[in-house]
Structures are given as structure tokens and as C-alpha cells.
Amino acid sequence: MSESLSRLRTVGEHVELDVGDDIANSPRYNEDIAPTRAAQRTWTRWNVAALWVGMAICVPTYTLGGVLTAYFGLSVSEALWTILIANVVVLIPLTLNAYPGTRYGIPCPVVLRASFGIIGSNVPSLIRAIVACGWFGVQTLFGGIAIHLMLSAMFDGWAALGGVGEVLGFFIFWVANLTVVIRGSESIKHLEALAAPLLLIVAVGLVFWALPKISLAEVLSTPATRAPGEPVFGFFMAGLTAMVGFWATLSLNIPDFSRYARTQRSQVLGQIIGLPLTMLLFAGLGVVLTAASVELTGEVISDPINLIGRIDNDFWVVIAMLMIILATISTNTAANIVSPTNVFQNVAPKIINEDRGVIITGLIGVALMSWELLKKMGWLETDVSVESLYSNWLIGYSSLLGPIAGIMIVDYFLIKQQSYDLIALYKDDAGYPAWNKAGFTAFLVPVGFTLVAITTGKLGWFYNYGWFTGSILGGLIYYLAARGEIGRSS
Q1: CATH architecture entry for 7-489
Q2: How far apart are CA 123 and CA 125, in angstroms?
Q3: Is the overall model pTM greater than 0.85, yes or no?
């Protein structure tokens, strides 16, 4: 019997793949990273917006204002402007890199096969995946603390567990997260649709709770912590780079979600509606509540979980912690599990399916957060805080991810002219190289400059503005290198 061949057909603005034996038997294919069919692309603009509301309302977003004032020397009002501008800026790579996902129904690692090679795509994908696993560990830690505080309000015996209760909460939350993702994309869509309005209600409720205790005008006029007379531009640009870096990860793997969007218009409008204002409002809420925490509790508390845990009413503590748990699950499942799950499948599609990818992601997240878990158990002493860890990540990893974002955009819109050979993306030796030299040249040159800046102290501006310098330089080098390869082959 002869092998059946795969075929392409156009359904509206989507390209759909009818899988034949040639792709089904390919080592680069499994059903979980296969292109979504037109019938699976059900996400409206409101589903996409809800996705972003669910991801943006989380503990790290709450602390961003404090990060910018404490670590980057900005005033409160400067910090909030920086957050808004950064999230308008990051919409550009988010919407552009979502295009191939929506048109072809393919996840991020398969998109990267076009610019880095069929096998080479694993390098930028794994860089993204390890960062996501680290964030998964951080968010699971926060979720575990919320579970511990909720159960402590319900049971006196649980409160006596202390740090051990937080570790147990970590693993309860860990199981809940993995369960949602294993149930599939529709489970995530329904979770985000449920979470978004509830989280907005909680945010508004917290504002009304805090406002009588503080002067909003005084909070917004809080001066900068930088030395008097120093120009704001350098501090602003460093903070802007860090805030862009907050979602630099999603600017790469946004095809993992846009592959379910009904239309390009749905993904573009959904992201515009859902991201910038949510980030601004929840980060602003963090600034207000941190300022109010002194009046409310007698000390500065910079995260909402511990602040809400001080409420002298067990009923409201339980309700609030349920909302925090829901918020953190909605962020964690979408932002930090889906991407590495697809990445690990891309490494060995015939061995690792979606369920196995989820488990691998979870185990790496536990390993990366093991030092904090051991500290809570009293088995390890360290001065490293989770807050300093993820605030220091923001510039560092955006320097690595910026070039990848630039390469992806240039490849799809300028080199490939918005046209992929979809069948060849799932096969060896069918049109795309195993390793794309142009992609790796464009990636390694900006990374080299970053390493020089870190190790020698020279080219500090390149590192401080890492996402911008990396994405622009990476995109430019890729364009020149890829055009050169096209010229030599023609």
C-alpha cells in the first residue's frame, strides 16, 4: 500500500493541514504540536483579552511598582508611566509574532523551525522553556503560600505547621496547575474566562479597602530614590527594558495561544484590550496597597498574599485567598506551563507528548525552586530572596530573548513574506535546513555583546537596554544573513 501524502487547504484566512502518512510517520510530528484545525480555532477577542487579564493579574505584577522604585530609582508616578509604556511597546512583538500561529495553527517551537532550522529550533525554544519553568516555580510558591494561609484561617492545626504548611501548599498548588493544562486548551480558555471578571472585582474591592487609609495624591507624588539631580532618562530606559522583559517570554511563544484564535483581528484586538491597562491598574494597585500596608498593619508589606493574610476576619481571608489562588493558577497555566510543554515535545515528538511535557515542566519547576522549599523546611539557610531573584532576571533574560523576537518577526514578514511551507516544517530534509546559520548568527552576535558587557563592564548600554538592542540588532543581522543565503542559492 502506498504512503498517503499530506495536503493543504485554505479555510478563510487559515491554512489547514490534512495529515497524511508522510507527516504522521515523521520524527518531527505528533498530534499535540500538529497545526490546529479550523474548527479548533474558537478564541474570540474576548477570550484573548481574558487570557491577558488572567495572566497579568498576579503577584509579580503587583510588585512591579515597588521593583521600579526600589531597584531602578524611579518615582511612583514615573514607575507607573514606565509600566504603561512598556506594555504598549511589547504589544508590537506580541501581535506580530502571533500572526503565523493564527494563520497556520502552529505552536512557537514549530514557528522557530523556519528561522533556526528543524533541529536548531530547540536551542531558542529551550532558552524560553527554562525561564518559564523558573517562573512556574516562583508562581507556584506564591500559590502555595495562599493555600497555606487559606487553610490556616480554616484550621488552627494547619496554621501551626508554619513553613512546612507552605511547602505542602506548594505541592497542592503544583498538582492543580498541571491538571488544568493536561485537560487541554479549552480548559485554559474556560479558566481564563471565569477568572478575568472575578479578578477585576477583587482588584476593585482591594482599592476601596485601602483608599480610606491613605492619601492617593501623596502616594503618587512619592519622590524617586535616585540621587538628586540625576537625569531620569537612563533610569527610565533601564526600567523600561526590565518591564518589556516581563512579557518578553510571551512575545516569543504567543503562537502557542494565537493558534486557537478565530481571526488575526481577534488576536490583535484581544491583546490590545487585555494587556496594557490591566498591567497598569494592577501594578498601580500594588503601589497603593504597599503604601497603605503601613497604616493597615504597622509595617511595609509588598505582596498581596501576606497583606490579605493580616485581615482580622477568617471568612474574608478564605475568600480572598481563593481569588489569589485562582489568579495565580490562571497566570501560571497559561504563561509558564504551555510554552515549555510544547518545547519539550519539539525536542522528541515521538517520545514526549503533551502530558509528559507537562510533567517535565513541573519537575523542573520544583528543582529550580528547591532552595526556597528547603529554606522553608528549615533545612537550608540563604539570604537570597525570591523577589530579588525575579527582579534581577528581568533585564538578564530579556537580553537573551530580544534577538529571538526580532529574528522571528523579520523571518515571517520580510524573508518568508508571510508564507511558510507548512508540510516541510514537520519533515526532515524537505525544504528547511536542520540548522539555519542565519538564525544562529543573528542570535549569537547580540548575545556575545551582552556577555562582553557583563564580564568586562564595557558596552553597559547594550546590556541595560538589552531587549531593544538585542531585538533590533538580531533582526537586522538576520535580514542581511538570510538575504545573503537567498542570493547565493538563486
Answers
A1: Orthogonal Bundle (1.10)
A2: 5
A3: yes
